[in-house]
Design brief:
Layout (H helix, E strand, L loop, with lengths): L3 H16 L11 H30 L6 H7 L7 H4 L9 H4 L6 H20 L6 H12 L2 H6 L8 H14 L3 H21 L1 H4 L5 H21 L4 H10 L10 H10 L1 H10 L3
Helix pairs in contact: 1-2, 2-12, 3-6, 6-7, 6-10, 9-10, 10-12, 10-15, 12-13, 12-14
Amino acid sequence: MKKIALVLAAVAALAMTACGGKKAAQNESAEAPQSQESFQEQQIKMGMKVHLDSLTNAWLRIEKPMAVTYNAQEGKVKLSDAQKKVLPDYLVNPDEVMGSLESLSLKYRAMVVFDMDKEVAKLYGMNDVYTPAINKLAAEVDDPAVKYLYNVDEKVTYQERMNKVYSLEEENGRANYFWEAAATSIIEQLYILGRNQEVFLASFTDQDAEDITFYVSLLVDAYADLAEYNSELARLYNVILPLQVLNAITVDELRTQLNQIDADIANARKALFM
């Protein structure tokens, strides 16, 4: 996977060519266009970083972007005895996919899916097959941000955790995996909601619905930039693009929109493991 910075340099050179300034005099030093190219590269990098940082900051201000798992952890999702007997058949079984997770991208996505599915399985009293798989994948990716996330004090807020993870991924040159995880989390959340609206939307408030659709819009906006510089993120951009129609601000609107794009959500979930 090409590093974003290298591709930005190429884009900068193309941008300069397209702008078409005056030709340098024959006796002008060869270093002049090089320094100008370096400046152009810096401006593009800075502009992209400012945009992504602003989107990330807006995302981190959302109170509950992961309302499905948050409500489950907080005991807000209530299951009747009859509902508990109907075990969910839409969760990923780690044993069925672990052997095919060959790339880092797939491993990061699987960790996110396993982490969310684990909370759903817990509601139904199912055996925890997810923690061992998550621990194995975390050891394999060997990422400081992942180590932090799975060892952080529970008192640390979601916003503080994600802010720290974002910083660590940037510092270690793994920002692309941060964005892959972000896309994976919203896809899995929408997939879970769509498979069992009766259970999970019952715990939602209108604010939860608005937070999720706002999260989707921020993510699609970020990916519009990211897709230009990374082939894997470009593929994921096409996967999440159909989700941009979500603009619900009430639970009823979200229910209707989930039904309307159910096939797109199912296809997006399937694409996570491809």
